[in-house]
Amino acid sequence: MRKSKRILVTGGAGFLGSHLCKKLLDQGHEVICLDNFSTSTKDNVSDLLNHPGFELVNHDVTTPFRFEVDEIYNLACPASPVHYQSNPIQTIKTSVLGAINVLELAYQLRAKVLHASTSEVYGDPLIHPQPEDYWGNVNPVGVRSCYDESKRCAETLCFEYFRKYGLEIKIIRIFNTYGPKMQWSDGRVVSNHIVQALKGEEITIYGDGKQTRSFCYVDDLIDGMLAMMETESNFLGPVNLGNPAEFTILELAEKVLRLTGSKSKVSFLPFPSDDPKRRRPDISLAKSKLGWQPRVSLEEGLKETIAYFRKVFQ
Ligand code: NAD
Ligand code: UDP
């Protein structure tokens, strides 16, 4: 039988965090969910509030905190470009000071830390698909760098705490993940296109829509995250977690239109600066070290996500 642990999830009320909290509670663990609700609401975890093993704490990760826990999942950070660019300095503080506060606590408690990094550390990649040993192509002074560079710095901090203190750290690089519980106004492409299709509004395509992304369904991602936390202590990552099936944004829009039966028209808007033109994870390492690979196709995952948003707008 699995031993029950006390686990802290920063950013636990967010899209990924809320799924993670639920899964950990289902496994019999106690969960402390820390969030400042800057890009989420309590609604995401409302179904967990009456669970005896669940505690919700309103706190900003940029100031220190202390809870007695065995493990920490560090997810607190805005993930949508619209959100992280709306207050870039706060984004940097959240990533960097948040990581320091998490790592300091983990050091005091000798707790294990899983840090949520991102495919964005590869920037606008010159190597395709992206393996973990690719160092990336990031503009350090562009509008995305508040996120990209602070996430890179957070990875560095994890490694320095490992080198100096032998802290047990795990880094995952998450590629575009979607599913129920994304905020409808989040601004990411999957939620935007579904919401626009359901409301009969124009589907917004930035640029010519030929840029690609590889979309991972949330359940697959959470399985990968949990598998990473359970790997042997000398495996730190970073490890890519994502679905290697690659689609253009136009292909995504066509699928959403077909699956919703919407008559929305497509409208083309300017291509955002530094927006990566191609992105696809090389998941060989995740396959070999975690025995993990995604199972849910884009079509299946979109159907679940569309059903969720239909309920939100009922
Ligand atoms: P999200 O915006 O839905 O969730 C982030 C959560 O962190 C929110 O609940 C927000 O309120 C909270 N938060 C933000 N700043 C905070 C602060 N200073 N103090 C406390 N809480 C704070 O985003 P998500 O998609 O759930 O992403 C979760 C993590 O995964 C992030 O670290 C993100 O960078 C990473 N990630 C996600 C994706 C993806 O496709 N979903 C891809 C790459 C990386
Ligand atoms: N995008 C788009 N229409 C939208 C939102 C995003 O065409 O309404 C594009 C965006 O320019 C990017 C891709 O879709 O090329 C993925 O954007 P998202 O914000 O979901 O995530 P990113 O991978 O850029 O962090």
Automatic annotation (TrEMBL):
GO cellular component terms listed in the entry, alphabetical order: cytoplasm
**GO terms of biological process kind:** D-xylose metabolic process
Keyword Cytoplasm annotated: yes
A UniProt-annotated Pfam family: Epimerase
Question: Which top-level group of life is the source organism from?
Answer: Bacteria
GO MF terms here are:
NAD+ binding; UDP-glucuronate decarboxylase activity
Q: Which cofactor is recorded for it?
A: NAD(+)
Q: Which residues form the NAD-dependent epimerase/dehydratase domain?
A: 7-234
Q: Which UniProt keywords apply?
A: Cytoplasm, Decarboxylase, Lyase, NAD
Q: Where is this protein primarily located?
A: cytoplasm
Instruction: Tell me where it resides.
Output: Cytoplasm
Q: Which InterPro entries match?
A: Epimerase_deHydtase, NAD(P)-bd_dom_sf, UXS-like
Q: What is this protein called?
A: UDP-glucose 4-epimerase
Protein's organism: Collibacillus ludicampi
Q: What taxonomic classification does the UniProt entry list for its organism?
A: Bacteria, Bacillati, Bacillota, Bacilli, Bacillales
